[in-house]
Structures are given as structure tokens and as C-alpha cells.
Fold:
Amino acid sequence: MSVAVPRQYLKPADWAEAPCAVPDELKKNHRLWRVESPGGKSLFTGYFEPELRGSLTRQGPFQHALYAPPADLICMPNTAEVGGFGRMENGKITPHFSRAEIENGALEGKNLELLYVDDPVDLFFLQVQGSGQIHLPDGGKRRVSFAAKNGQAYTSIGAVLKREEHLNPATMGDIKNWLRAYPERRAEILNRNASFIFFKFLEGPGPVGASGEVLQPERSLAVDDTLWPYGLEVIVETRDPLENKPLVRLMRTADTGSAIRGVVRGDIFFGCGAEAGRRAGAMAHEGRLWIILPVSN
Structure:
């Protein structure tokens, strides 16, 4: 298992230095490393699987569509300029339609709507989280998962609101409250994030991370996939998002995200539902990262 992090940021450590218990079986033929970040920067945030109300047809309050990927969307995982996705236009690869263009009808008539939900704010954050469960009027539910993105650059609307509207702190709950308090500004702010996520229906257990693994609460970690491989056992040492106490967990790299960039940068999966969302939305702490590698590395 290889990592792309420069070796000067990996410091060998003894097992006695580990901040939490590590199974003896894992210690066999493995070595513990402490990760140091360039400039000492670190950040651990959280994400979760939201639950939304929706319908398979556009009706009543269900007016906001989740889209499947367009037929002309091209996946290019090694093309960073367009975020790994784009489309061919005039013989050149460019990003696909922006969020504003899609919201203004660029995909209408293409039969890409998977289903419709009743809340555009929750839909936006479903895209941020990458997966969710949609509760249908007949009592059933469908699970949706990330399928692709439009290749446009990701912009944090939390950072926009902090800078321009002095919203501080800008947790997920704070941002949702602001967007609902100023509906006349909502589209303008949401469209500042040109990135747009396309979905697919997910059958069976989930949610599923970019690694293909089913995500486990406080066990699965999203990391910068340009630096870290999936399936890596790591120890995260940070602070609990709601209680003033340490949060130290043995985790596994299983996912990634557009905003997850950096050496000591992780997004902790907190589970499904409102309580998981409350914890994930409040999570934004510095911390330390330890990795466990085979001795051969």
C-alpha cells in the first residue's frame, strides 16, 4: 500500500505512543507513523447521510430534482483542471453546466430526473454529503449515492457567508438557518458554488464511499485521495464536535470529497439522520493523524 505524501511528513513512532488501543493483530508486520502537516495545518470536519422527503414524480411540494449524470458527461479521473469530469465542446474538454445553469433549466427535457424533494436547502446539503435516504409519500424510501459531478470548482458557501455576511460560526445549521431566513438571497448564494453533484439509486446496504466500502459511523474517514490510498488504517486524534472532550478513533480511509484537500485533513462519517447531522455539522477541529503501514512500506 503506497502513499503519495512526501516522506518528510511521516515520522516513525512506537506503538506505545498510539493515542488509542490498536488490535494486536494489526500490529503484526505493521508500523505506526505520526503525520506532520506542512505549516502545521490540520482540520477534521464531519459528514453524514441525510434523510429527505421526496417523490418519484413532480407533484405538490416536491419540485426540486435530483439528476442522473448527463449522457455527454465524460469521466477523466486524472484531469484535475475539470475535477475529473467534463464534456466535449468545440473539440475541447470543458466543465459541464454550472449549478446556476442547471438550476435555470439547462438539463430540462433530457429525462435525467431521478426524483424530486421538497426543500432546496436540504437538497444542496445532500449534494455536499454525497448520499442520502429519500422518504417517499407511500412510506417507502430510496437511497441515492454520488454518481458524478459537473467538473466545476467547489466553493464553500460557508466561507462566502463568513466573509460577506459576517456569519460566524458558519456551521451547517447556521448556514441552513441563514438561507431560510433570506429566501430572496438563497439562489444567489447557493449558485456561488458552481459544483453540482449527479446521483444514482443505490440498492442494498449503504451509504457507500468512493472506495466502494459501506461507510461505518465514526470508523470511516474521507481523505485527500491524491495523497492517501483507500483501505488505510489510521488513528484520528481531535475533539468531539458537541462535548468538550477528546475524540480519538481508529478509522479507515474509505471516501473523499471536493473540499477534502491536505495532508492532515479528514472528514469523519457520523452516520445517518438528524443526530448524526447535528454532530457532523458542528465538527470543525484541528487534530493529529497517525497512520499504520505494512513494514514493507
Observations:
- The first strand starts at residue 10 and ends at 13.
- The chain has a mean pLDDT of 93.
- The domain at 49-202 is CATH 2.40.240.50 (Ribosomal Protein L25; Chain P).
